[in-house]
């Protein structure tokens, strides 16, 4: 049985009006070199806003600690040590804004419970115990705001269903059952929690061989199944795919990564629309996790990031 722990990067609030590309104009633009040397963690490499400036930063999780390279909007800057020693979980280490201050915090998921180190904007602070007992899913553990209060909640996906522990800003509260039966995916990225409807509540999205199913969050449960694609839609190259807003309309879109390139299906709030080719050539990384989609430029649209042995390349969303 797979045991995967994932997190979604927070979607930054838009400032002003973003000009939206039409389907014929939409694409990921030309390669830009954002690091001039290798940069990745031996535990994980993630991209999310830990400083609170609206730009996703590059975070490397290593045996010795966590290093951050801030996004300037055009490159990732120099290494900054954000922990003074090792900080990682035996199950996984994740980044999400669990306190609601606009900065992603460092979360360690261990067999004994969940520990959080808050982001101060320049470092991760001291350990805080956020669960008094073990909390993780045998299919996956995720962090996303399913309640709409601006704080990422803890989500455990198990064989029997999905359980939520809300963030209070200083702890994860008691278990809540959000599905009355099993709900998980059979192909990568399996389950994702993202706001595909535009109501500021992260919905439960699963990817199966026959297509994509969504259960909307109503703030206290995930509602009935909705079919959002009428045919299969999945990726074959790591990171396989993602659900995040690449168009700037506050709806998370469906993105898949294949050998021939990247395809996007936009969310219209009730379904994912027709395929759009967003790269005309292969674009994926050679170093795990292969890549990511996050807003590194601060324009409200997630960009395509690949991690290679030689460095990090970005293609901006147009």
TrEMBL record:
Signal peptide residue numbers: 1-26
Any Pfam family hit: FG-GAP_3
Domain of life of the native organism: Bacteria
Key words of the record: Signal
SUPFAM superfamilies for the chain: Integrin alpha N-terminal domain
PANTHER family: MAM DOMAIN-CONTAINING PROTEIN, SENSOR KINASE-RELATED
Protein name: VCBS repeat-containing protein
Source organism of the structure: Streptomyces phaeochromogenes
């Amino acid at each position: 049985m797979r045991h995967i722990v994932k997190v979604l990067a927070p979607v930054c609030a838009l400032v002003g009006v973003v000009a939206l590309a039409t389907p014929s104009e939409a694409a990921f633009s030309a390669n830009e070199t954002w690091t001039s040397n290798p940069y990745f963690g031996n535990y994980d490499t993630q991209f999310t806003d830990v400083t609170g400036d609206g730009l996703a930063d590059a975070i490397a999780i290593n045996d010795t600690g966590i290093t951050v390279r801030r996004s300037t909007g055009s490159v990732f800057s120099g290494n900054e040590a954000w922990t003074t020693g090792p900080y990682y979980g035996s199950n996984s280490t994740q980044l999400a804004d669990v306190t609601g201050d606009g900065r992603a915090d460092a979360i360690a998921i261990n067999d004994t419970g969940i520990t959080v180190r808050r982001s101060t904007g320049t470092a991760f602070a001291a350990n805080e115990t956020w669960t008094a007992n073990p909390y993780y899913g045998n299919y996956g553990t995720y962090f996303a705001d399913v309640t709409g209060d601006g704080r990422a909640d803890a989500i455990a996906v198990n064989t029997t269903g999905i359980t939520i522990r809300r963030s209070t800003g200083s702890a994860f509260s008691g278990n809540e059952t959000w599905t009355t039966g099993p709900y998980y995916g059979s192909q990568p990225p399996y389950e994702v929690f993202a706001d595909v409807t535009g109501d500021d509540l992260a919905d439960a999205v699963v990817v199966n061989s026959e297509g994509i199913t969504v259960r909307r969050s109503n703030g206290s449960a995930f509602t009935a199944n909705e079919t959002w694609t009428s045919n299969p839609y999945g990726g074959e190259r790591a990171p396989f795919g993602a659900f995040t807003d690449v168009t700037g309309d506050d709806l998370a879109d469906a993105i898949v990564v294949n050998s021939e390139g990247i395809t996007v299906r936009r969310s219209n709030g009730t379904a994912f629309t027709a395929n759009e080719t967003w790269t005309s050539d292969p674009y994926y990384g050679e170093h795990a996790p292969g890549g990511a989609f996050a807003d590194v430029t601060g324009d409200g649209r997630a960009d395509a990031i690949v991690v290679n042995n030689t460095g990090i390349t970005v293609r901006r969303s147009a």
